[in-house]
Write a structure and sequence with these properties.
It contains ten helices and eleven strands. With 335 residues, the protein is α/β, with parallel strands linked by helices. The protein has a five-stranded parallel beta sheet. β3 and β4 form a beta hairpin. It is globular, with a radius of gyration of 19 Å.
Length: 335
């Protein structure tokens, strides 16, 4: 049985509030092609934007989720909110209120089903001190980690204002799950063909990793532990270019970062790459001890097949398979 730390949920009470319009016009649920769509409106650099995401019923239907977990051979999900519900574009006070409500709702679910679920908090990173306080409250109540976006409304993760949040993460000693929630700066070129997801999401994660390394965050807070969604984006495949560039250029050294190969072991990478050769490459080059099973449940870009049938897993040793399916997550989240 596998442990899945990349599984998203929206508390059913929030779905009811959105349908009733109690959250205003910034978020709505509308009919879609085969499944409903969750629509958000936000502002980037003074321009109004609208994003639409699929909203499968499994996102909030508990019975469907438990049946799927049984079918997939998943013993436990570590729940995190659907990333658009991190609400970084909202007023910070409203975002904090949302985080508190969501965190308590997820925790309540884990208490009702302690054998099936643990949960990760969300926090209003547009206000790092408030995010630090909410994270402390949530962890002390029972959350085992925190999910954050790969950017904070266009602000990269090396922004000095986030140090207050990183310091609290280190103090609490919990892992940080990085998940893209709207890649900023690429919208105009990635508008067609679902490239916003195919390319934008993994690119956003890759930028986040580069900023954490070259921006000195991992030197200021060396005990930080990160889980990267979607196999780390492009990070495992582009690392040689970063290493070469570090030796040739002065720009990556401006904040005193060491060569990037010194940092890759600080990251964990989930298995969502959808290709057996790629998963095998990641496990052998990153190390199976840093690869963690994940599904992106319940979304169509996830890996929703039975856990032991994910492409490429059978090519690895039995010991490495067990690390990936259960052992690494147990260690990372102290289960």
């Amino acid at each position: 049985m596998a442990i899945d730390p990349h599984a998203h949920m929206i508390p059913a009470s929030w779905i009811e509030d959105i349908r009733a319009g109690r959250l205003g016009s910034a978020v709505s649920i509308v009919p879609g092609d085969g499944t409903e769509q969750f629509v958000t409106k936000f502002t980037v650099l003074g321009q109004e934007r609208t994003n639409a995401y699929p909203l499968p019923k499994e996102t909030y239907d508990l019975d469907m989720r438990l049946n799927d977990m049984k079918r997939m051979g998943v013993e436990r999900q570590i729940l995190s909110v659907v990333p658009t519900f991190m609400f970084y574009s909202l007023d910070a006070r409203l975002s904090l209120e949302a985080a508190v409500s969501i965190n308590d709702a997820l925790l309540d679910l884990t208490r009702k089903h302690p054998g099936a679920f643990s949960c990760m908090a969300t926090a209003p990173l547009q206000d790092p001190p408030a995010a630090a306080r909410e994270l402390e409250r949530a962890v002390k109540k029972g959350h085992v980690g925190v999910q954050i976006g790969a950017n904070v409304s266009g602000k990269n993760l090396d922004d000095p204002s986030l140090d207050a949040f990183w310091a609290k993460v280190v103090e609490l000693d919990v892992p940080v799950f990085i998940h893209p929630a709207g890649a900023r700066g690429f919208e105009d070129r990635l508008g067609k063909y679902y490239l916003s997801n195919f390319i934008g999401n993994p690119l956003d994660t890759t930028v986040a990793v580069a900023c954490l390394i070259f921006g000195g965050v991992l030197d200021r807070f060396p005990s930080l532990k990160f889980l990267l969604s979607h196999a780390g984006g492009f990070t495992p495949w582009i690392r040689g270019r970063w290493q070469h560039g570090y030796g040739e250029r002065k720009e990556p050294k401006v904040y005193g970062a060491k060569d990037p190969e010194q940092y890759f072991g600080k990251f964990y990478y989930d298995t969502i790459i959808h290709n057996p050769d790629c998963l095998e490459f990641a496990a052998r080059t990153i190390g199976a001890g840093n690869v963690v099973y994940g599904t992106d449940y319940p979304f169509d870009m996830g890996d929703l097949c039975p856990a032991r049938e994910i492409p490429g897993l059978s090519r690895l040793s039995s010991a490495d398979q067990e690390k990936i399916l259960t052992g690494n997550a147990r260690k990372l989240y102290k289960l």
